[in-house]
């Protein structure tokens, strides 16, 4: 065939290509640690363009299927996943994608190393980062609240580098009654000797193929009624299969037909006497599971910035290949300005998200001051909601920057938007996280240390050219301080109505 054919965008090694990631790592890591992390990330980024990229492509091309019956009519509820999806689990173990955060070879900076690796992995992972997020959150939960048995068994599996031993986890919170208002959940837990048996349904359970899950249920006293509301919920540990490989009295009703995250098996489940172990105090389930949720919310933020960065890398490359009106797009001032604005958004989101990761590492290693812990508490919902919203907006703009090609499935570009859209919905919607900011301020007094932290950073900025920026930031901080007492005087409804703007 003759005539013009456009070259598509190409990706280079995404560690070498990412100046912001490298300069951030230069700032927070030193000497030997910096070198070791560099070697690991550069090598891994090469792998993402090779075998790991192929696994993800296979997982995307062969979405999971639910096989409910065997040839003889027996109910088996087997979720058939692609070979690529299974291999991504093996790679995750080998590469220590969870383990790095728990080996803590670099102390608190191990979280920076781990999340930098996850940041490279996520856009090439077919969203295998989702089961990893929940595995990591469950590991942290068990570290904080688990007994010796859970630490020796589940925690060891979740943080293993041996693919034969490695486990991922589910996080089963959402029921038909509500995913935001978890306290409306109907699942009942009945004591049975040393364990409990769970009865109820879970409406969204991602990575249903995981070996374990953390979930919530209401303990029903013998002959009595379970306590309603979120204070009646307790936290439970569930292994999804028994020693013979049979499902733990779990029925899988169907897989969700979703806009995106196509390779990720998200199912509706019935728990029909599922054996479960109580974790932590009865009635503290919601408060206890937030240890897990606060980790997965940071994963969400890193996923958002990683998709923004992937889109930019592709759009920048394409702008050098595509010609319009006599010039490469990259040399069209307005196109260049459009991409520059996306880059600014990405830079801000990246630095905000990785500030959360730095603080997470410090807190887990016992290095965080009480003020830093309060900053982390408030920063977590902020980075989750802010980066997710920017990711969706950015993905839309990135698609447009390719013109019609951005809307065509086999360019791979629409996936950025489809997979980006979920990031503002799961793990707490934007509104719920805005309200969580108020909770962190009300209950943990997080605003004062949070604003002080920003002021400290602004004061440390001695670059003259940035003076107009630092002045504007200081003015904004004053406005925030003035806003709260003003709106509080108007009552709770006004505070909540303004929560999103405030966040
Ligand atoms: C690749 C990307 C990575 C992500 C992959 C993830 C895939 C899985 C997707 C999922 O979506 S899993 C399901 C996620 N679900 C949620 O995030 C639930 C959203 N709803 C909320 O977060 C609500 O705010 C909440 C359920 C917590 C409201 O419950 P309540 O019981 O009405 O709240 P309440 O009474 O204010 O808080 C109960 C306790 O928890 C309080 O402690 P105390 O009892 O000691 O006073 C709160 O302070 C505490 N708490 C609530 N949120 C907290 C928290 N503590 C720390 N951090 C938080 N975020
Ligand atoms: P609702 O809670 O009904 O919310 C509807 C709307 O009301 C939202 O816009 C919300 O912001 C708003 N709203 C609710 N309350 C308030 C309020 N007080 N003030 C202002 N606005 C409010 N859940 C799991 O537990 N485990 C999983 O593995 C899992 N995987 C998922 C995978 C995918 C692909 C998706 C899409 C969801 C998944 N979820 C999972 C569920 C997810 O966490 C919930 O969908 C989410 O928390 C919202 O709950 P909901 O769908 O019940 O919406």
Automatic annotation (TrEMBL):
<comment type="similarity">
    <text>Belongs to the acyl-CoA dehydrogenase family.</text>
</comment>
<feature type="domain" description="Adaptive response protein AidB N-terminal">
    <location>
        <begin position="13"/>
        <end position="160"/>
    </location>
</feature>
<protein>
    <submittedName>
        <fullName>Acyl-CoA dehydrogenase family member 11</fullName>
    </submittedName>
</protein>
<feature type="domain" description="Acyl-CoA dehydrogenase/oxidase C-terminal">
    <location>
        <begin position="283"/>
        <end position="436"/>
    </location>
</feature>
<feature type="domain" description="Acyl-CoA oxidase/dehydrogenase middle">
    <location>
        <begin position="171"/>
        <end position="272"/>
    </location>
</feature>
């Amino acid at each position: 065939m003759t005539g013009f054919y456009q070259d598509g965008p190409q990706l280079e090694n995404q560690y070498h290509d990412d100046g912001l990631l490298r300069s951030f790592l230069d700032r927070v890591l030193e000497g030997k640690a910096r070198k070791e992390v560099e070697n690991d990330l550069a090598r891994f980024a090469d792998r993402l363009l090779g075998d790991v990229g192929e696994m993800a492509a296979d997982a995307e091309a062969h979405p999971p299927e639910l096989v409910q019956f065997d040839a003889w009519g027996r109910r088996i509820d087997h979720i058939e996943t692609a070979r690529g999806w299974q291999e991504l689990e093996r790679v995750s173990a080998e590469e220590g994608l969870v383990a790095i955060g728990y080996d803590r070879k670099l102390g608190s900076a191990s979280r920076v190393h781990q999340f930098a690796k996850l940041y490279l992995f996520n856009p090439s992972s077919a969203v295998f980062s989702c089961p990893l997020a929940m595995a990591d959150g469950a590991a942290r939960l068990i570290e904080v609240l688990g007994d010796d048995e859970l630490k020796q068994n589940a925690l060891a599996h979740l943080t293993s580098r041996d693919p034969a031993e490695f486990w991922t986890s589910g996080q089963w919170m959402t029921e038909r009654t509500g995913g935001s208002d978890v306290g409306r959940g109907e699942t009942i837990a009945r004591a049975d000797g040393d364990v409990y048996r769970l009865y109820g349904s879970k409406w969204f359970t991602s990575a249903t193929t995981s070996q374990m899950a953390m979930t919530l249920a209401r303990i029903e006293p013998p002959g009595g009624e379970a306590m309603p509301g979120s204070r009646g919920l307790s936290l439970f540990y569930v292994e999804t299969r028994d020693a013979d490989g049979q499902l733990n009295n779990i029925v899988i009703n169907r897989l969700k037909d979703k806009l995106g995250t196509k390779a990720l098996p998200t199912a509706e489940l019935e728990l029909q006497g599922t054996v479960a172990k109580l974790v932590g105090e009865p009635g503290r389930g919601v408060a206890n599971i937030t240890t897990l949720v606060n980790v997965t919310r940071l994963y969400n933020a890193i996923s958002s910035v990683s998709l923004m960065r992937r889109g930019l890398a592709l759009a920048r490359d394409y702008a050098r290949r595509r010609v319009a009106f006599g010039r490469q797009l990259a040399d069209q001032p307005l196109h260049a300005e459009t991409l520059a604005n996306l880059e600014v958004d990405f830079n801000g989101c990246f630095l905000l998200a990785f500030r959360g990761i730095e603080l997470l590492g410090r807190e887990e290693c016992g290095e965080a001051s009480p003020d830093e812990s309060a900053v982390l508490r408030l920063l977590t919902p902020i980075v989750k909601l802010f980066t997710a919203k920017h990711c969706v907006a950015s993905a839309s703009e990135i698609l447009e920057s390719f013109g019609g090609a951005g809307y065509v499935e086999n360019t791979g570009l629409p996936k950025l938007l489809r997979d980006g859209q979920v990031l503002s919905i799961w793990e707490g919607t934007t509104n719920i996280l805005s309200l969580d900011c108020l909770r962190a301020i009300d209950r943990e007094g997080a605003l004062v240390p949070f604003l002080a932290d920003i002021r400290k950073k602004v004061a440390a900025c001695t670059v003259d050219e940035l003076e107009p920026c630092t002045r504007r930031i200081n003015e904004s901080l004053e406005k925030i301080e003035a806003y709260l007492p003003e709106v509080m005087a108007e009552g709770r409804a006004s505070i909540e109505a303004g929560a999103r703007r405030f966040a």
